[in-house]
Structures are given as structure tokens and as C-alpha cells.
Specification:
With about 120 residues, the chain is mainly alpha-helical. It is about 50% helix and about 10% strand. Bound molecules: zinc ion. The site of zinc ion has 7 residues, from loops.
């Protein structure tokens, strides 16, 4: 009995260390992939628009699923805020460095450079 508890404690400690390691990796990623910092494509590049729209649609889908599971999108929510509440697994990013405005009424994002991904994209 006592031995079992010691093993359990040991496992818990190992688990905690793993979680801390994972968290630091995630934080590292969040910092390096900060969407507004480093545009990787030109705003004039038509391919950037395609990537931007694809990212918007992926983000919309995630928020939709989150809302269906009981999440409540808040007015004025930011991309970072949606990541924080778990509506998005990662920030929606524009390869040309555009900023996104979230519309809580239809769970869509609008890019400051490329606008809104057309319906049915
Ligand atoms: Zn964009």
C-alpha cells in the first residue's frame, strides 16, 4: 500500500515535469509564430490571399465546433482571446501580416489586408 503510493507520487512528478516541458515548448512556439510580427509573403501575392483564406476557414471551423460544444463567442473577441478560451487551437494568421477581426455573429474572421474569405471557399 505504502509502496503503491510512492510509485503514484513518482508518476505524478514525472507527469508534472512532462507537462512543464510541453508548456515551455508551446509558449516558445506561440512567441516565434506571432502572426503580426513577421509576414512571410507579400500582401500583393495572390498565393498569400489563398493561404489567408484557408487559415480563416480553418479557424472558423474550429470556433464553430467550440460553439456547438457550448462555447460562447464574445463580442470584441480577439484571435489571442479565442486561443486563450480554447476556441482556437492556434492563432489564425495571415502570411502577409494582416490583422484579424472576429465577428461573433457568424464566427468569421476578416483580414485587414485580404478581407473576409468568401462564402463557400
Ligand atoms: Zn490576410
Amino acid at each position: 500500500m505504502k509502496k503503491g503510493a510512492a510509485v503514484a507520487r513518482h508518476r505524478l512528478a514525472a507527469c508534472t515535469i512532462t507537462l512543464i516541458a510541453l508548456a515551455s515548448i508551446l509558449i516558445g512556439c506561440a512567441v516565434t509564430s506571432d502572426g503580426n510580427g513577421t509576414p512571410t509573403m507579400s500582401a500583393d501575392d495572390p498565393a498569400a490571399k489563398q493561404v489567408c483564406f484557408a487559415n480563416q476557414v480553418a479557424g472558423q471551423t474550429e470556433v464553430f465546433v467550440w460553439v456547438n460544444e457550448g462555447g460562447r463567442p464574445m463580442t470584441g473577441a480577439t484571435v489571442d482571446g479565442l486561443v486563450k478560451v480554447g476556441a482556437l487551437s492556434k492563432p489564425v494568421v495571415c502570411p502577409a501580416g494582416g490583422d484579424f477581426v472576429f465577428n461573433p455573429n457568424d464566427c468569421t474572421f476578416t483580414c485587414s489586408i485580404h478581407g473576409w474569405a468568401p462564402d463557400g471557399y
